[in-house]
Prior knowledge:
Elements: E1 5-11, H1 15-25, E2 29-30, E3 34-36, E4 41-47, E5 52-58, H2 66-71, E6 76-84, H3 87-96, E7 108-109, E8 115-119, E9 129-133
Parallel strand pairs: 1-5, 6-9
Antiparallel strand pairs: 1-6, 2-4, 3-4, 4-5, 7-8, 8-9
The chain binds cobalt (II) ion.
Residues 7, 9, 54, 79, 81, 111, 130 line the site of cobalt (II) ion.
Amino acid sequence: MIGRLNxxxxxxxxxxxxxxxxxxxxxxxxxxxxxxxxxxxxVVFVALPNTKIELLHxxxxxxxxxxxxxxxxxxxxxxxxxxxxxxxxxxDHLKATGARVLGDxxxxxxxxxxPVLFLHPKDFAGxxxxxxxx
Length: 134
Ligand code: CO
């Protein structure tokens, strides 16, 4: 059902420092920081040949990243995003297997303007999973 790895998201306490580390130490191509107020994050996109890394930093009072960073002050992997062709079919299949879909189960428009859903980490080896329809 899942296809390509679309991105790995890493929450970081200092976006400029993390961006410089990916650019200068790891030699990757990094974007400017992009503010996504609707998602409560500022993001730097790191382009790799086969996927993307997203460096996430809290933006605003109700950021979904803030609690994660409070538990992981030096940052850490926040979620992985897998591509699916049909997000409603994927959701229905997942629910039928007993996997928990977060929120109300209806896809939301994600950071790439495509429908996304998040899946409970306890059902996926301790990893928050995002699925995105491409
Ligand atoms: Co994501």
